[in-house]
C-alpha cells in the first residue's frame, strides 16, 4: 500500500429526483452523480476504507468500509455446537472473536462563517388533549449552549438529530442557514464502567461532542492514547465548559460497529 494516497472519482447513483404527475401524465426523472474522495488504511488484520461522498443536493455523506481478515483465536474445538461465549467457529480450531470498532470524526464546522450554534431536534407526539386522533407529532428544538451540555447520545425513539447553524445568517425563508448531522447505523460502547479502555477511549462513551475550535485539539482520544493518563482527549477539551453561542465550533461524532461473530454452516 502506498502512503498518503487518495482516490477521487465520479459515479452514477441511480435516481436523484423523480415525480410522476397523475393529472398531466408527465413522468420526470433526474440521474444522480456523486463525487467520491476515498482512502484505505491497513491496520493489522483489518483494512479500513473512508470515503467522503459529495451529492448534488448538497449532502455530504461519510462511508466507512471494513474488510481484511477476521480477528482469529485458536481453540481445541472443531464442532460448532460447542459453547464459545466470546465468538463463533469460522473453521475447525479457529474462533472469530467478538469485538467492536470505534471511529470518531472531527468536523470543523464553518456554516456561512465562523459564528455558529448547535441545535438538537427531538421528535415527540403531542399530548392527548392536543392530539385528538393520536397521530400528531412535533420536532422540538433545544439549543446546546455549552460544551458539557453538548455531550449527547443518539435516541432512535425521538429521531434525534443535530443542526449546526449560522448565528447571524438567514436563508430566503428567514431561517438560519445550517447543516444537519443525520446519523446512520450506530451502536453503544459495550465495555463495562470498570474497563480500562474507557479511560483510553472516553470519546466512544458518547456519540456527539461539541467543542470550541482549538488548533491543538485534533484527536478525540488525545495525541498519545496508548500512553496517556485517563481523561485525555475530549473530556479534557470540554473541561472548561466554554460557551457554544456564536462560536467557531467543532462537531465530533463517534460511530461504533459491533463485530459479533455469527454461526457459519460449513459444507464438506
UniProtKB/TrEMBL annotation:
The entry's keywords: Copper, Metal-binding, Oxidoreductase, TPQ
Family to which the UniProt record says this protein belongs: Belongs to the copper/topaquinone oxidase family.
Matches recorded under Gene3D superfamilies: Copper amine oxidase, catalytic domain (2.70.98.20)
Maturation and modification: Topaquinone (TPQ) is generated by copper-dependent autoxidation of a specific tyrosyl residue.
Occurrences of domain Copper amine oxidase catalytic (ranges): 3-255
Organism domain of life: Bacteria
EC number: 1.4.3.-
2',4',5'-topaquinone PTM positions: 46
Protein name per its UniProtKB record: Amine oxidase
GO MF annotation, one: primary methylamine oxidase activity
Lineage: Bacteria, Bacillati, Cyanobacteriota, Cyanophyceae, Nostocales
Subunit structure: Homodimer.
Cofactor binding description: Contains 1 topaquinone per subunit.
GO biological process: amine metabolic process
UniProt entry tagged with the keyword Oxidoreductase: yes
